[in-house]
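hey can u check if this looks right to u? its 350 residues, i copy pasted from the old doc so theres a chance i mangled smth
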Amino acid sequence: MGEQPIFTTRAHVFQIDPSTKKNWVPASKQAVTVSYFYDSTRNSYRIISVDGSKVIINSTITPNMNFTKTSQKFGQWADSRANTVFGLGFSSEQQLAKFAEKFQEVKEAAKLAREKSQDKMETSSDQSQESGRETPLANQASSFNGTDDEKIYHVGPENPEQKSENNPLKSAVDQSKKWETELQTLTESNARLMDALQEANSNAESWKSQVSKCQEENSQLKNRISELDVQCQDMNVEREKNAQLTVRIHKLEADLQDKQQELENLRKQAEIIPQLMAECESITAKLQAAEVTNRDMSENMKLLQAEIDTNQQRERSMKMELKKFMDVLDGKIDELHEVRQGMSKLGIDN
């Protein structure tokens, strides 16, 4: 049967920055298909994702892996074989929860597969020790049991001949993994081409031309795999730019939160404006009343000032009349004094 997809979803794929080990670098420009695959021949599980013609995730699930939810819509797991950390951003919490549940199921299945593989290897080891017929071929068979992430176990001590025989097997295993990745890429490309053919309702000749184009594309993909090493430097530059853009986006998000907080404060202040307007109208009415009262008081003050001026004028007139009266009174007193003196002299004479 080979590898078969057992669960598929869509998500934005990220990888940890290898230089900083802190920032996320986008591995896909948009949401792409992320699938769990089960290999019945080797009893192993993998997570695979392809963006166009590029394989961005090829991670074999092992029992010691853990999927961590870092936010409501984002999760991550570390792959020691790939020496990186993968991150997935989902469009909803439900998709993240389903992916995490499937990860746990696959992890448990991988654990059971490893335990069964170890039991088989222990059984074969006991049988080989009893028979005493241990050969390099037995070691080779034991190296293919279990999952991809398991180590190669050898029964008995290893000699130089066994090492020389096992080295080609290791290189063959590595080469098979590489061809499996290429095969998965070709499978995804063929599926997309078939969907395009069905939607376009093209004829048999068009289908043949598309198949030939697919074959050419497959050969180009093989050539491109060899060119990826040359493009790594450009990819590192792009990753640095993406990291800078990510930092800028975080900064803009922080500024946006500050602006939203300011807007919320302004909204709260806007709720107080009607009350302030009412108080302002009340104060304006009081001010107008005070101005009317002030004008009335000003009129009264003018009247009082006029009365004061009139009274002062009267007072000055009365002072002048009083002065005249005092002068007349002084003259009368002087005359009376003279009369008195004259009467006194008359009395003395008498």
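The longest strand covers residues 3-16.
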